[in-house]
Write a structure and sequence with these properties.
Helix content: 10-25%
CATH superfamily of the domain at 614-817: Transferase(Phosphotransferase) domain 1
Radius of gyration: 33 Å
Largest sheet: 16 strands, parallel
Number of strands: 43
CATH class of the domain at 614-817: Mainly Alpha
Strand content: 15-25%
Shape: globular
Strand order of the largest sheet: 2-4-6-8-10-12-14-15-17-19-21-23-24-26-28-30
């Protein structure tokens, strides 16, 4: 065994003495997500550990092959060796037996050869990931049908062949839990009608050499969120049945041979956010119904043969981030309504037949980073207002019929990196300030009468300089005195108004002195921080809307909670959260940095919690919380509730306390979040009523039956969460039916059956200290039951909860230091 690997594994495995079997000493164990990186090979001795359950070695520097012995471990549930440099084949010996295997991650290695049929005997597989290897051969047509619990199938970027696609997709209909199906980079002959029976939410078959048409039955895949057939040989029209995919958010049919028109049925896909039809053989008109696609943020229909005007309704989609209509035959002009695209980042209308002037309203596109209008029939001058497009990075106006001068206002664009004004009819002096000092002659070639710096291969501006000197003299003698006088008058007015406003601000600051000045973050800053609210920045979705990760220009990481304004209730949730949080300051509450609100957009900007939610740490594979970490989290949550109930000027009832609403920062400190249905208790008020329903399972009895809200309701929810944290069982778990609930299950376990309800991961991590932990668990579960008394008056208060948990923590820490 490699010394490095043996040294690492010795932290978890007792190496037996001579004459003893490995299996006598091995118990199941849980490995933390972040492991020590080490080189070498996977020791074949692991194959003799017949009680071994989890082999978790991702993202190391391991090489060599995997011993066939490891593929005979009947107790193995989790085999994850992804992101290494392992090679060779998967053993196909007849003794292969992994009946307990649930998670198989071999992706991002160098494995070759066939996928042996025996691997499909692991009928309990939930996640199957072999992507990004060099597997080859033919996939069995019906083997996947036996994996009835399969949720994820990732085999992309290999060299596998699916010969009978009908049988293959038919077999997948047995996988009722299948959510992710990624087949890209393999060989599939065609898409059969049986694809319509698949239940997956994510389907991708890019670069698979697929021929033929898209079957009409694709419209039956009603669970689809993402569908991609990018870069295949698909022909025929776009099926009208796509309109039935009302959940679909991402559709890519680019780089195929699709024919026909842009069907209006696409406009009926109300959830569609990204549409890619680039590089096909589509033709005809772009329909006016595009303006009905209110969820659309990215559209790319470039490199087709559309020959109509761009529908005026398109410019009403104010949340569009990217438009690419390049390389078509579009006609007409650019209307003033182009200025409505308040969030646009990239706009490419190049290589079309668009004529007329560039509208001055284009200066409203303050978020635009890339603008290409090249190779059209634009005329007139370049608007000076382009200099107000502060985010512009790339500007291409080449191969048009533009006249006049290049505006000096463009020198003020701080981020401008690429420009192209070539092949026009421009004249006058080329700008030389700002980033124009870095541009080359290629950006200005083939114009009529440009002059300026010789390095740009244009003549010097001799006559223009003299003419400009005469103009300057005229300004100095006649116009300048008038201008100076006007400036002085305006300055006096500004000073007077400033003094008046300062008095008002001083008065206002007295009322805000305890809160600090609120930070202002604009919508456009949020767009830049989240890369246009892109999918790569997406953190999650809740009943209120979506949350995105972002990074401000000063480097600060933020989380942006975007409210879904289509629902009046969700909009009221935003107002409630702002109202509840505006006066709250506590280390265990998620800090609200700012809010951004207008008629069409509402969001909360919060501090970013790098470790995500407690719910994730409890239930996702390969995350393990120790006993002390769980205890610290619940102390943090109790401290937050104690402050809300008794420490703020007006008592606040959270109303929706649960693990998914508790976030962890980089130091694993817990912060309570999501005050969307919180209630403020007016002065002297101990309870109120509500019609808002919180999360089932965490509701206090009086809340669920009568809508009574009080701080005691939060105490009840806290008790349920305390049980959940140490049992790893949700109150809505399938095991809780009829008379059995999480509360009665815990009550029945005291005092002698605590091991039966504790999270098994805690037992594995704790080891020899389990007896001490059981004593503490008894106190914790008793405390949780005191929080969950049916009568609100009988429940313990949060101050006593905090005191009890701190006593337990003192005992735990003291025992660990002995």
């Amino acid at each position: 065994m490699s010394n490095t690997v043996e040294s690492y594994l010795s932290h978890y495995i007792i190496i037996p003495k001579k004459g003893k079997r490995w299996s006598d000493f091995i118990v199941p164990f849980c490995v933390a997500k972040t492991l020590l990186t080490f080189p070498g090979t996977i020791p074949k001795e692991i194959g003799y550990l017949d009680k071994f359950e989890v082999l978790y070695l991702p993202n190391n520097s391991l090489s060599g092959s995997i011993s066939s012995k490891i593929f005979n471990l009947s107790s193995l549930t989790d085999l994850e060796v992804d992101l290494n440099s392992l090679s060779g084949t998967i053993p196909s010996n007849t003794g292969y037996s992994l009946p307990s295997l649930q998670y198989l991650y071999l992706n991002d290695n160098n494995f070759v050869g066939n996928i042996p049929n025996n691997i499909f005997n692991s009928s309990n597989l939930i996640e199957f990931q072999l992507d990004d290897n060099a597997f080859s051969g033919t996939l069995p047509n019906t083997a996947f049908g036996d994996l009835r619990f399969l949720e994820s199938l990732f085999i992309y970027d290999n060299n596998l062949t699916i010969e009978d696609s009908h049988q293959f997709f038919t077999s997948l209909t047995n996988c009722r839990y299948l959510k992710y199906l990624e087949l890209s980079g393999n060989h599939i002959s065609n898409l059969p009608k049986s694809i319509g029976n698949i239940t997956s939410e994510f389907f991708s078959a890019e670069s698979c050499g697929i021929d033929g048409n898209i079957p009409q039955e694709v419209g039956n895949m009603s669970n689809l969120l993402t569908f991609s057939l990018f870069r295949n040989n698909i022909t025929g029209p776009i099926p009208g049945t796509f309109k039935k995919l009302q959940k679909l958010q991402f559709l890519s049919l680019s780089n195929n041979g699709l024919q026909g028109s842009f069907i209006e049925e696409i406009c009926e896909m109300k959830s569609l956010g990204e549409l890619y039809l680039k590089n096909n053989k589509l033709s005809g008109v772009l329909p006016t119904c595009l303006g009905n696609m209110i969820s659309l943020i990215r559209i790319n229909v470039g490199s087709n043969s559309f020959n109509s005007r761009i529908p005026l309704s398109l410019w009403s989609l104010r949340d569009l981030l990217e438009i690419n209509f390049s390389s078509n035959s579009l006609i007409g002009n650019l209307p003033p309504e182009i200025g409505n695209l308040r969030a646009i980042i990239r706009l490419d209308l190049s290589r079309n037949q668009i004529s007329s002037n560039i509208p001055t309203t284009i200066n409203s596109l303050l978020t635009l980073q890339s603008l290409s209008l090249a190779d059209n029939k634009l005329n007139g001058s370049i608007p000076k207002s382009l200099g107000q497009m502060v985010s512009l990075i790339s500007l291409d106006l080449s191969q048009n019929m533009l006249t006049g001068v290049i505006p000096k206002s463009l020198e003020s664009l701080l981020y401008l990196q690429n420009i192209n004004f070539s092949y026009n009819r421009l004249q006058g002096e080329t700008p030389d300030g700002g980033h124009f000092k870095n541009f080359t002659a290629q950006s200005f070639m083939h114009n009529d009468a440009l002059c300026g710096d010789p390095r740009l291969l244009v003549p010097l501006c001799g006559k223009q300089v003299k003419k400009w000197s005469m103009e300057k003299k005229l300004i100095l003698k006649c116009i300048l005195p008038i201008v100076v006088s006007a400036i002085l008058v305006v300055a006096c007015i500004i000073v007077l108004k400033h003094n008046k406003r300062r008095k008002n601000e001083n008065t206002l600051e007295k009322g805000l002195s305890t809160l600090g000045a609120p930070r202002r973050i604009s919508y456009y800053e949020l767009v830049q921080a989240t890369n246009g609210f892109s999918e790569s920045n997406f953190l999650g979705r809740g009943g209120f809307g979506s949350v995105y990760q972002g990074k401000l220009l000063d480097g600060e990481m933020i989380a942006v909670k975007v409210i879904d304004l289509q629902s009046e209730a969700k909009s009221k949730s935003f107002d409630a959260e702002c109202n509840a949080m505006r006066n709250l300051r506590h280390r265990n509450l998620v800090k609200i940095i700012s809010s951004c609100s207008n008629l069409d957009f509402k969001s909360l900007v919060m501090e970013f919690m790098s470790n995500g939610s407690v719910d994730k740490w409890l239930y996702l594979n390969n995350y393990c919380l120790t006993f002390l970490q769980r205890l610290n989290i619940m102390i943090d949550v109790a401290s937050a509730l104690g402050y809300l109930h008794h420490g703020s000027s007006i008592p606040v009832v959270h109303c929706d306390l649960k693990p998914s609403n508790v976030l962890l920062d980089e130091n694993m400190v817990a912060h309570v979040s999501d005050f969307g249905i919180a209630k403020l208790m007016d002065e002297g008020q101990s309870q109120t009523h509500t019609q808002t329903l919180a999360t089932i399972g965490y509701l206090a009895p009086e809340y669920g039956s009568k809508g009574i809200v009080s701080v005691k309701g939060d105490v009840y929810s806290y008790g349920i969460m305390l049980m959940e944290i140490f049992t790893r069982k949700k109150p809505t778990d399938d095991m809780f039916v009829v008379e059995l609930s999480l509360k009665t299950w815990i009550s029945g376990s005291l005092p002698n059956s605590i091991m039966e309800v504790m999270d098994s991961n805690l037992v594995q991590i704790t080891g020899d200290q389990i007896d001490d932990i059981l004593t503490h668990m008894s106190y914790i579960f008793s405390l949780a039951l005191n929080c969950c008394e049916d009568s609100p008056e009988a429940r313990i208060n949060m101050a006593d909860v905090i005191a009890t948990l701190i006593k337990i923590k003192t005992l735990v820490v003291g025992a660990n230091t002995l």
